Amino acid sequence: MSVITGITRGGVEWTPSFVTSLNQSICIGCGRCYKVCPRDVFELLERDELDLEEIEDADDDFDEAPGMVMSLRDMLDCIGCEACSRVCPKGCLSHEPQALAA
Ligand code: SF4
Ligand code: SF4
Predict the structure, then answer these.
(1) pLDDT tens per residue across span 11-42
(2) I need a labelling partner for 10 at 20 to 30 A (CA). Which of 16, 29, 43, 100 fits?
(3) In this structure, is residue 65 part of a structural domain?
């Protein structure tokens, strides 16, 4: 299966890995993914009260926003840089290469 690939200015091929899902059950709403994303992929939403217990073990040194949760507003705008997963403290995001259209 051929996938979408890129190339650096130095001529090195790389394979973008596009965001495919965000696990809202472990997201602490810190906003780090939103801040680093160069595209318009993320949106911070209000978390309903039933889910608030799930952020009790959140690390204290992150500027998490209790009551908020990140969502994927437009996955199709992702360029597969994986910066969001590099900064996410909870490992919420999943990525996959994208098959080339036939
Ligand atoms: S992989 Fe890059 S472009 Fe895609 S959602 Fe993450 S930070 Fe944004
Ligand atoms: S960086 Fe991770 S924990 Fe923070 S808002 Fe984004 S998905 Fe949620």
Answers:
(1) 999 999 999 999 999 999 999 999 999 999 99
(2) 100
(3) yes
Tokens of 2: 């051929």
CA of 17 to the centre of ligand 1 (A): 9
Tell me if 70 sits within 8 A of 92, measured CB to CB: yes
For ligand 2, say whether the CB of 27 is within 6 Å of any of its atoms.
Answer: yes
Residue 1 inside a domain? The answer is: no
What is the reported pTM? 0.84
> Ligand 1 pocket test: which of 14, 21, 79, 85 has the largest number of ligand atoms within 8 Å of its C-beta?
79
Which range marks the domain in which residue 80 is found?
A: 6-96
Residue-level pLDDT at 63 = 53
What's the token pair of residue 15?
Answer: 């394979």
Q: 34-71 pLDDT, tens per residue?
A: 999 999 999 999 987 544 455 454 444 445 666 899 99
Q: Taking the CA atoms of the chain, what radius of gyration do you get in angstroms? A: 15
With tokens 């996938």, the residue in question is 3
